[in-house]
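Attaching the record inline, Q. Sequence:
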Amino acid sequence: MAAPQPAPAPAPAPDAAAPRRRISGAVWAALAVVYVVWGSTYLGIRIVVQTMPPFLSAGARFLTAGLVLAGIVAWRFGPSALRVTRAQLGSTAVVGLLLVLGGNGLVVLAETAVPSGLAALLVASVPMWVVVLRAATGDRPPARTLAGVLVGLAGLAVLTSPGLSGEVRLWGVLLVVAGALAWSLGSFSAGRLPMPGNAFTGSAYQMLWGGAAQALVGLARGEQRGLDPGSFSTASWLALGYLVLIGSVVGFTAYAWLLQAAPLSLVATYAYVNPVVAVVLGALVLDEPVTLPIALGGAIVVAAVGVIVSTERRK
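Structure, as predicted:
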């Protein structure tokens, strides 16, 4: 995730009633970082898995990013900021496994067979699945939101057609959809479990739990057998470093700051800007084809997510 996206973070709460505020240049700059950085992580993952094992590389990414973020928390807020209760630690484990192992790990594995742009468009369905989970637990989303979900599901059906026609491996497409579901469940659960008060602390623990689980899965799959770091391309090493420092640490820091400095309705626009950035970068850097099903299905999904996000933020 990338995704998922993007670095793992608890699902934000709706905007509280507040007077309108002017959007500063710093907010627009941070928003641009989230747009470009999180949109580019799909390209980074695709380049990494060209020569590196998927789960071991992803595990290295999140273990390193988690340690770096924990160090930043200790330096900025003091070592006591890393203290959590047993319940909070357990919650970060649950959410970290869902977001990092399930959400990100499945997408990383899928990108060994699926173009980065298509993966990003499929992951863009996360807000739709969150609405479905809310409805399944007794919430009553507005009719406009439900209509957006139905339209989005139609877009997903169009997006899966390349796999059905043999242009893309179907198992990769299904893995991305499963990853989006796992990320949705993790985001949904984060707002209902006892999490650390400091969002950075919570994300550091989530990265560490998820990264360790990814490494274990990689070992269980035998990715270490015959492993030759000398065969890893320079591009893969650079992409992995980018994912650790820029994709995870910088991207999440900008996102966490935005949650405090900008209207949530504005911050939430990353959900339908990131996939567009990913498709453009995939086409420009890796010459990934933008076929009619990808263009049409992607446009439908992005439009549906835009409807869902705009409707939900008015509540």
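Confidence is low (pLDDT under 50) at residues 2-20. Residues 234-261 form the longest helix (28 residues).

More tomorrow.
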